[in-house]
């Protein structure tokens, strides 16, 4: 068994360690900087063994032998001696400045790291058996502390100045040694960590204090000073475009510089510093430049610059974007108000002229909606492409459009204009007839987005309901699929309750198609009561067939889904009356719980006539007309000239009960006028002894076999009808407000007036914005009807009565 080496006298042991360890190592470091050239493996073992012998003792219990402390202190003293005599002297020579000083410091630091590593390895016995018991720093920590106290504390100001000088040179365009600067950064970091770079630290934030105070903070201050001076010139001399280019390049350069030779935690501080000095201090000045600012970019649609603007200011958060969003909103609002005023003038001029727009291609109100859609589409595109769909810009766009979209265009509201526009897109007689379905779908999508800004969505829905009824009853829809698609879009915006009637109307039309099939089957089964035509005059379509020579179809509609129409009556010719009676028998046979209320004035038909001989190439003319026009034209089977009074009386049923409503005199004249127009001169008007006489114009020469006459009874935008729509909407709003009040009070049971108004407004905002006075009136009404009661002590407090 091998015997342990005998202890040695401390003086002899240290002399051996000095002569065979420290002296050759330090000489080699001074000359070559590489400890590997100094020792062989056997020599290293001898040195470690000598450390063991010096520290050995026959003492078996604490405290540790005194020679261990002596050795620890002698090692510390030897390191300090080397640092004072060699390292400090080398880095404080007068000739060393700037980059040369930094290079020398890095060289000496690297040598010191080798020295500390060598000491830690050879004197490991001390770390294992002395450091822990004596509660002193490990040899590595002690070695770095020696460097910090002896060398670094003496030259840190000069080093910092040299670093900032090199950074300034790089900013001015010179090439600098970034690796050298990164090494200097590592030295500053290690001076706080007091450990080797390969080790970890329990509290990195505390260990970085030296780096933060001695290098990071001065670096940030110099950055602020540099860009404060530079941007003052940029803001004055450069356009906004050039300013942003410079700013973006500078910020990116600083971040690149940070990544290259500063600690990673400094990155965010550098960005914040640059944003504050480059962007924040000059934001208002450059944004409002008249010939190159934000408004100029928006007017010129400079998407690249707008995207760069957002890229620069978005890292600053809401603070950086709020001013941009404010200018953006004000510009859209100004542009929108100018557009509205221009369109108002056009529409006013159009009303004064009393005709269509140029070329008759589209009405001015349609041009107005298309202009609004184009404006909205443009700014939505900017938000998406340039502002990354940022919420603050979405909100700014919404606020701006709400400010002018709800302006009335003379007597016509935007809600009505939008309804008319959608009607034109979906009607065979409108713009949609010349478009493919994809184009219509796209325009409807844009229109629904615009509707989101309307404060009177319920008014739009009321007009839309009447127009849908007109399209369905007159069979003018471009496509039922498009109708359903549009209703679905409205449903997503306004909610299911508000499109229930529209969906019900589509359902009623589909059910009516089923009724046509079952009506035909019933007629086939009951031929004794249903005189059907056969042979050449039999069925014309799958769901239509001739009865008494008339192709008859009926729509069965639920009154709750459809607009309210005045119950006007007209005296029908006998063949039409017989068809109605027949359908009445069929329907009563199927159901006893429902009652049919006929509205023949909403119908239409096709008349075949051979009376017009002006064009010999066309023998029979097919005229698509409404029920009133059918009744008038059939009168001319008896004679060619009929006085006005006879026509007027002929449409009235003398046997009808008192109070029955008929077409008034003005409406009758308007109706006859549609048969005497220059385009459709079916009748000619002349004066007679007892008033006007209308004669059949047999010389009319139609240019094609099928003709569709204008249907004045379907027009819903007349002044009287518009007033009726507004009145109906006001009534609906009363019910909606009352319903919302009851729901809110039922939930809270007790609520103050102010909170009740706020909650009711919030519930109704999706469809319309109620006036506080209207809410107050509805509250009073509900109190009278004993749904609510006021508090006995506080009159502004309401209680719900269950």
Automatic annotation (TrEMBL):
Which BP terms in the Gene Ontology apply to this protein?
ubiquitin-dependent protein catabolic process
Q: Where is the signal peptide?
A: none
Q: Give this protein's Gene Ontology molecular function annotations.
A: ubiquitin protein ligase binding
User: Which superkingdom is the protein from?
Assistant: Eukaryota
InterPro entries per record: Cullin, Cullin-like_AB, Cullin_homology, Cullin_homology_sf, Cullin_N, Cullin_neddylation_domain, Cullin_repeat-like_dom_sf, WH-like_DNA-bd_sf
Q: Name one Pfam family in it.
A: Cullin_Nedd8
Concerning PROSITE patterns, the annotation shows: CULLIN_2
Give all residue intervals belonging to the Cullin family profile domain. Answer: 413-649
Q: Which key words tag this protein in UniProt?
A: Isopeptide bond, Ubl conjugation
Q: Hey, which family's this protein in?
A: Belongs to the cullin family.
Return the protein name: Cullin family profile domain-containing protein
Q: Which organism is it from?
A: Rhodosorus marinus
